[in-house]
């Protein structure tokens, strides 16, 4: 079924209610419906949900766009907003693998053991991004804690599906999305300020935005850049 250009996988089965879902990584849309509902009704239902569907799909495309990597030579990979080509070195030398290096303007070097699977390569790159991002955060977080006069409890880096960061205002724990390592440092800094500001103002209120305007005058640009993907 296609509604307003959106392909919807329709599954009719013995259930009572309509159930619409959008799945990562590509934003596939699936509608489960009772057997006796006619197609017109289903179309109207999906039409009424289009803004919601698009919103879900945007979340996936903004963050998961890079998920289909193969980790082979000359593949593009991003680090701090710059594009690099991957160079894969297969070696059995015990001191040279597994490791990732970014020492030139052009290449990210991936040292792996022969026959390392795509998943193992992906995992290696991910750990490298995690370490790099933690390094950056270990400078930016204290810097902004001092400026804003706040203190985060725990700062963690993890895989997050739909957000760049989050702040638990009850315990002061802040999470950052590991994918931030691929973004320009200005974007990372914006997310740091954003999450720390939640320790002052829980909601995205006018006051919150006024703080952002004060501390990161170009925050809207950074927000836009984050969600464009690369
Ligand atoms: Zn927020």
Please describe what this structure looks like.
- Helix 3 crosses helix 4 (about 185-195).
- The longest helix is centred in the middle third of the chain and has 31 residues, at about 120-150.
- This protein has helices spanning about 40-50, 50-65, 120-150, 185-195, 205-215, 220-230; strands at about 1-5, 5-15, 20-25, 30-35, 75-80, 80-90, 100, 105-110, 155-160, 165-170, 175.
- The strands form three sheets. It has a four-stranded mixed β-sheet. Strands 5-6-8-7 form a four-stranded mixed β-sheet, covered by helices on one side. Strands 9-11-10 form a three-stranded mixed β-sheet, with helices on one face.
- The chain is of the alpha/beta class and about 230 residues long.
- The chain is flat.
- The chain folds into three domains: about 1-65, no CATH class; about 75-125, no CATH class; about 135-230, Zincin-like.
- It contains six helices and eleven strands.
- Bound molecules: zinc ion.
- Zinc ion binds near residues 194, 198 and 204.
List the helices and strands and how they pair.
Elements lengths: L1 E2 L2 E8 L5 E5 L4 E7 L4 H10 L1 H15 L11 E4 L2 E9 L8 E3 L5 E6 L5 H31 L6 E4 L6 E4 L4 E5 L7 H13 L8 H10 L3 H10 L2
Parallel strand pairs: 2-4, 6-8, 9-11
Antiparallel strand pairs: 1-2, 3-4, 5-6, 7-8, 10-11
Helix pairs in contact: 3-4, 4-6
Question: Summary?
Answer:
By secondary structure, the protein is α/β, with parallel strands linked by helices. Helix content is about 40%, strand content about 25%. It has helices at about 40-50, 50-65, 120-150, 185-195, 205-215, 220-230; strands spanning about 1-5, 5-15, 20-25, 30-35, 75-80, 80-90, 100, 105-110, 155-160, 165-170, 175.
């Amino acid at each position: 079924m296609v509604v307003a250009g959106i392909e919807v996988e329709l599954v009719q089965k013995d259930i009572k209610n309509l159930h619409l879902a959008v799945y990562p990584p590509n934003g596939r849309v699936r509608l489960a419906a009772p057997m006796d509902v006619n197609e017109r009704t289903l179309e109207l239902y999906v039409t009424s949900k289009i803004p919601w569907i698009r919103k879900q799909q945007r979340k996936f495309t903004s963050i998961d766009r890079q998920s289909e990597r193969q980790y082979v030579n000359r593949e593009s990979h991003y680090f701090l907003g710059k594009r690099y080509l991957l160079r894969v070195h297969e070696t059995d030398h015990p001191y040279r693998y597994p490791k990732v290096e970014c020492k030139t303007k052009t290449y990210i070097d991936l040292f792996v053991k022969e026959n390392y699977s795509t998943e193992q390569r992906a995992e290696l790159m991910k750990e490298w991004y995690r370490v790099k991002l933690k390094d950056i955060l270990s400078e930016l977080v204290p810097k902004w804690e001092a400026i804003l006069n706040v203190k985060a409890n725990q700062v963690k880096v993890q895989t997050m599906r739909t957000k760049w960061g989050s702040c638990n205002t009850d315990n002061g724990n802040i999470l950052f999305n590991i994918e931030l390592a691929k973004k320009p440092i200005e974007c990372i800094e914006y997310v740091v300020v954003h999450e720390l500001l939640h320790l002052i103002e829980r909601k995205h209120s006018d006051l919150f935005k006024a703080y952002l305007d004060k501390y990161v005058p170009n925050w809207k640009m950074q927000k836009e850049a984050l969600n464009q993907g690369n």
